[in-house]
């Protein structure tokens, strides 16, 4: 995924405190990381949402990131919810 395309999809979100929880797999051309991040949506339309005191749109997300080695460097491919990732890669499910 080109950097400009990646950044364009992030313009209405804030990601904080990213952490790699576990390396699920590293191969010659692919790698999968279990990660977590604190996510806050910032789209202007969300300013109309009426939150109760103490409520927030911020939440901690757990995802699996896919990376591909292009011969020179590791490139981000995509992030998926863990259950979606395991549907595509059942061989990497914990036993």
At a glance:
The chain is mainly β and 95 residues long.
- Spatial strand order of the main sheet: 1-2-3-4
User: Which percent range describes the beta-strand content?
Assistant: over 45%
Overall morphology: globular
Total beta-strand segments: 4
Write structural notes for this entry.
5% of the residues are buried. This protein starts with a helix and ends in a 7-residue tail after the last helix. It has 95 residues and is mainly beta. It has a single domain (3-92), classed as Roll (Nuclear Transport Factor 2, Chain: A). Strand 3 and strand 4 form a beta hairpin. The protein has helices at residues 3-8, 82-88; strands at 13-26, 30-41, 59-69, 74-80. It is built from 2 helices and 4 strands; from the N terminus they run αββββα. A 4-stranded antiparallel beta sheet has the order 1-2-3-4.
Task: Write the topology of this structure.
Blueprint: H1 3-8, E1 13-26, E2 30-41, E3 59-69, E4 74-80, H2 82-88
Antiparallel strand pairs: 1-2, 2-3, 3-4
Features:
single chain, 95 residues, mainly beta, Nuclear Transport Factor 2, Chain: A, four-stranded antiparallel beta sheet, 4 strands
């Amino acid at each position: 995924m080109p950097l400009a395309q990646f950044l364009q999809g992030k313009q209405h979100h804030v990601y904080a405190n990213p952490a790699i929880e576990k390396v699920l797999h590293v191969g010659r051309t692919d790698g999968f990381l279990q990660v977590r991040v604190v996510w806050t949506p910032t789209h202007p339309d969300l300013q109309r949402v009426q939150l109760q005191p103490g409520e927030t749109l911020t939440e901690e997300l757990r995802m699996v990131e896919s990376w591909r080695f292009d011969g020179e460097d590791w490139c981000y491919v995509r992030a998926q919810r863990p259950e979606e990732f395991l549907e595509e890669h059942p061989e990497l499910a914990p036993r």
